[in-house]
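Tutorial, part two.
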Amino acid sequence: MSPRLGTRPGAFALAFALFFLSLVAGSACREKEDPKPPAPSVSLPLAPPPPTSGDADGSSSRTSPSPSVVSLPSFAPIVKKVDPSVVTIMTAIAADARHRKGGHGVGTGFFVEAGVVVTNAHVIDTGTITVRLADERELEAKVVGKDVRTDIALLSVDVKDMPLASLGDSDEVDVGDWVLAIGNPFGLSHTVNVGIVSAKGRTREDVPLDPSGYYDFLQTDASINPGNSGGPLVDLRGRVVGINTAIRGGGAQGIGFAIPINMVRELMPKLLRFGRIVRSSLGATTRELREISKAERESWKIPAEVKGVVVDQVEPGGPGYEAGLTPGDVITAFQGRAIERGALLRWLASSAGVGQIVSVQVTRAGSTKELKVRLGELVEPRDPKVVGPERAPLH
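Running the prediction step on this input gives:
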């Protein structure tokens, strides 16, 4: 008879007990050797790069690298750098025959030079002006320069020890870049909102504003509201790239507009010196090529491939007239800079300087010509309308 495979009951119990103890000991050792990892930081996975070689369906014989991971930035160091230069601007209108109940307004500004604050013109268009500094001091401010056409104003404040905002280059800003809006929405001082640059080159055609204004807005989805006007729009290096100016849709709709800081840079010396802007002029009006009818294009023999703006009218005896500019000319360059939008030509011609001789390249009946124009002074309306009917001013 073959022996039976088995064990006695006592021996089985002893073996089971020894096995259980070994499991417990092993688990304890593993916990000691491999402690629980810390919770991961917030991060965003990036899609792996496409395969460099392989089949048409994207497969590859090589193993694709694992997706990269990038941590979200903290904006706190940027805020600490910029916020001390930001101020609250308060205006007050005394009750009188014109303003029976008086009134007050709140906006934002920031120091760009010792004792000089930049803001929007519509923030300080009436009443007395008080500036509240980051350290809560309140000081009287005076207007030293204002230009309603660009909605830029400079204030003088009797203080010399305030940090200055660092100015960036708005031409370097790309759509999709992170930006921060710092200001006083609804009087909530030093509020910080974050978003991206949604678009560039927004003009009065995109944002219904004063038709005589000069606009080349940065569009942002950083939440801005009444009270943010005049505040800085800041890049991730802590540099101001724009001045928050207008919103569309009635507040916090993700559609805000900022004046490019390069426009401010160009006008600031003139405002500090003269208190206002004297603009130069070509003495002609223009239209966009897309506005030209087929009949006009054929009449003026405008080539289909040409890019520029079309001269519509020329002021008799004006600078353009004297230089030989005629209706139907397509202006393709101004001082060597390519022109594809009327807003750009208007800005360049107005800021070049009265009496300056400039080069204007035109296409006339298919031929290219270069004209030399001595710019005249632009005669502007006395009482410009600062706020258009569809504009939501932030003050």
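The first helix runs from residue 9 to 33. In part three we will examine how such features are distributed along the chain.
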